[in-house]
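sorry to bug you again but im stuck and you know this stuff better than me. theres a chain ive been looking at and ive put its sequence and its fold in token form underneath. id like you to explain what the token line says about the fold, in plain words if possible. anything you notice is useful, everything is just below.
___
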Amino acid sequence: MAYEHILLEEEGGVATLTINRPQMLNALHVGVVSEMIDAVDRLRDEGTARALLMTGAGRGFSSGADLAGGGAGGAPMGSGPFDAGKVLESHFNPLLERLFALPIPFVTAVNGPAAGAGCSIALAGDIVVAGRSAYFLQAFVNIGLVPDVGSTWLLPRLAGRARAQAMMMLGERIPAETAEDWGLIWKCVDDDELMPTAREIAGKLASGPTRAYALIRQGIRACLDTTLTEALMIERQNQLFAGRTGDFVEGVSAFLQKRPANFRGK
């Protein structure tokens, strides 16, 4: 697929996916999300990249669904009745599931606004770094909709029920510094340090035990909704998989030989 709305570049094992509609604050419609799904599938299937870094071009990460371009329901606002959840089923939800299932670590670098669906995608990163001028906004209530693209699952787990519910019901901006205090993101940095910091993190992950990273993400996701006994069984199964990787053999060898490990993601 030729990309019109995103950029996908790969260097040093890090694939950088940039939402590239800066004139629209990177608003998301079905064309954008289709390209993002294709890019994530390519990264999964080709296996050359060992980390994904996602950001937005220009002044923002993403302003959310492109209401004028059919982002909310597959048709422009005001064109008549439509199912506002249909495009979730066909596009946004498959994208989020793919991101969570990626066999490589996923970093988001949040610049400017991350609103609505853009907020959900930004916070889905394994590690989220935001510039100081960035903010997170659950804007759905402002147009009479409910949070989607995983927000009602993800936000209470990140920030707690009280903060997540107020964020969704009040529809107010959460500045990056507050997001860090709440535990929504890993780190807030000065704007000019955003991409260097995110690239450094992505580069570190790209040189690490990739399969173990994927198991960590999957383990956390599974254990959020289980009993302790079930969580212990999940950890035991994941450790079985991790212990059979070449990276485990290399990690132990490097430790015993007192040298840096040369992980290959295998």
